[in-house]
Amino acid sequence: MMSLEQPAEQLHEAMLIRRIVAGEHELFYELIRPYERRLYATAFAILRNEADAEDAVQEAMLKAFKHLGQFRSEARFSTWLIQITMNEARMRRRKAHANIMEPIDGRSMDGKDEEGSYTPRDFADWREIPSETLERSEVREKLAEALSGLGQIYREVFVLRDMQHLSIEETAKMLGISAASVKTRLLRARLMLRDLLAPGFGGAWSSKLSFAKGTKPW
Amino acid sequence: MVVTCEHVWSEVSNYLDGEVDPGLRAAIEEHVRGCKNCTAVLDGTRNVIQLYGDERMVEVPLGFSHRLHRRLDENMPRSRRTFLGWMVAAAATFLVVGGIEVARSTSRGPEVRSELAKRGSGVPPGMMVVVSENGRLFHVAGCEYIHEKDKLRTVTAAEAENEGYVPCVRCLRKYLVTNAWTAGSDDASRRA
Description:
The structure holds two protein chains of two kinds. By secondary structure, chain A is mainly α. In chain A, 60% of the residues lie in helices and 0% in strands. The N and C termini of chain A lie far apart (42 Å). The model of chain A is unreliable at 102-113 and 207-218 (pLDDT under 50).
């Protein structure tokens, strides 16, 4: 069912799609431009390499163009694009790792399988994180590094849920897993990231980032 | 209901997503108030969601858009409007060259339909726009500021400009400039 959140944008998209399918191919770029960043984030989260992610997005968008006539307006266009990008990135990852052991898939970083409970390891106090810290490239790098440290099954769920803001159901459908699995993996992904980041945000990075106590900019 | 630390950790994700029932929610909140470790876990997890959910988290490589655009251009089949596109390009070139000549001789562009109207600058000549018979503006199809919707024509931007239409202040604002003719002729020179 079409969301009523931003009907004007969706109508504009629907109009563009009709015109592109009818032959005005040059409008395709205008259609996908608002989603470039999200698509890159999706591919990067799977492939963990800038050049591979960029190539995957390009290839995915060529496929999206080719199959644009198959898009049905019951789905959100952004979700459709993310699905195609996700499929492309996963396929490339499978090819690249066909002959290599995948030690982290299906397992968390502490070695337990996904059904086991996860026990937080770091209880550093980490109350406030102003979004301004994201202006700092070193913080973004730390966050990207932590995300890269997760097993793929956790990264995929986390990226779709917490970075692309898809619903539990949309995430489950896109990955071909149950809603319960999405919830389990999401919990572990969030807790693992918290563990990886807590020591830094709890103090160590504050001093590294030259924030003297009491003089933090927030 | 009394919950343990382990119970809180297993529900922290559902709790933050608003997916626990009111009884469990109250029990978790009661526990967290008196538990430093669970407070750290809850706050930290909330921060993880907030930080990664921020779109500034992702940096697209420099030149990403340009390369994507180029790859699409290279691989997409030619638009079915190719022939028309060539005609438009030829017409646009003719207009641009003619425009420069006119500019040299009269320092004025094509006469616009309203003295108060501002000319556009850098409007892609092949862009399809709509005009109404008695209007003075050209619009992107679907613009809510189109009047006389029953007397619309679809033309190229170059044709619209040649007929004296100027860009709509709403849907084509980015092409409007204050010193219209100067900027317009600069742009015409660039394109020529």
